[in-house]
Design goal:
This protein is an alpha/beta fold. It has a domain at 41-175 and 288-435: Alkaline Phosphatase, subunit A (3-Layer(aba) Sandwich), CATH 3.40.720. Helices cover 30% and strands 13% of the residues. It contains twelve helices and 13 strands. The strands form four sheets. A seven-stranded mixed sheet has the order 5-8-3-11-12-4-13, sandwiched between helices. A two-stranded antiparallel sheet has the order 1-2. Strand 1 and strand 2 form a beta hairpin. Helix 9 runs parallel beside helix 11 (323-348). The longest helix is centred in the last third of the chain and has 26 residues, at 323-348. Residues 31-38, 187-196 and 244-259 have low confidence and may be disordered.
Amino acid sequence: MGFRPLNRRTLLRGAASASVALPWLEAMQPAVKAASAPSSSPQRLLCVFQPNGVYPAAWDVTGTGADYQLSRILEPLHPLRSEVTIVSHLDNVTAGNHVRMTSAFLTGAGVENGYCPPSVDQLVAEQIGSETLFPSLQLGTEPPRQGDDGASPVSFANTVSWSTGGRRMSPEINPQVAFDRMFRTGGGSARIQQANLQRSVLDLVRGEARSLRLRISVSDRIRLDDYLHSVRELEVRIGRSLQPSQVPALAQSADLQRPPAGIPRDREQHLQMMMELMVLALQTDTTRVGTLMTAHGFSRQSFSFLAGVSGDHHVLSHHQEQPHAVEQYTRISRWHIEQFAWLLNRMQQIPEADGTLLDNSVVLYGSGMKDGNGHRGENLPILLAGRGGGRLKPGRHIALREHTPLANLHCTLAHTFGLPLSDFNGSSTGEVTEVLT
């Protein structure tokens, strides 16, 4: 039986206020594809930021190339080591405080007088973002903090994304708002919109989903059902996390405060929701460029939910080599890597025409400082994952020449997405071609 090819931009539309983009399906590719034809899957860039650095001795690996030994912090990546590259000796050339070092993570230069040059994600979004609903998507978990960090407002460290006009691209931290932006398009009277907000988005598009299932192959039906199940599962998780009856009473502890309205109390649940939303956005080609802030760049989030941890992240990052603080700081960093491994596993599980979502993505992970104790910016904790549609060669530890600017990596990544840059914001001195195939 033959099936009519689907356009990659096909949406399931529903009652006035819902539209659900589709994942890649076999029905979206031509019946016959020449062997020399380029990849039919879009290439994506995802940048994941972790605040407050790491304890160097617990992060640094031994050995280079494919024959290296994972460190304590990086051990959760062992099942994924063939998909990840560790890049050592990249420096943040912007010294100073949390705000400037956070703003330099994707720009190569820190914010000055409220202005910052464009970040690599936004430059790539300008290059490839016109083909998607959102040119780029910024998600996070923590609202802007107030106050000053030297000459800059601390609130500036709530983002790592800066537009070509020097504007902050602040992340959405509310999972319900992010979900609605992706799946509810508005339309109809206010009364109808409000009524539809009480219904599952999949209920609203059920008719079109049934019609589509009749037009696609058995294997595509399985893919479609798995995807719709993921959307529904996330919708339920978000709803449950925001129900007042599900929010525990305020604990009698000085380091715990009730979170802002609409923000899940459970930190791991919140972060994984935002990760799942980002994966769905990339999977459905709703966007091809994303940034994910695991927390504010000057984060003072309490990690007392982790065994053996009793303080906030920022305070513990200024450990002064005290063993009890170093141990807690390391446990927090390892938790972040566990969440990153969760994200990569999720991307690896999603098939596309020529591999997986992870295969067709470039995923950059890291922090704007190496060690929070003294705000050290040399030899940053930087990881690359994915294969970039065949452009990257993962599975190695690459030790670069000491004091290589982080902007060199950004220049290289920009080139892989077709940007003809001679340098990156005046901060690069070359490229990091070692990460390429």
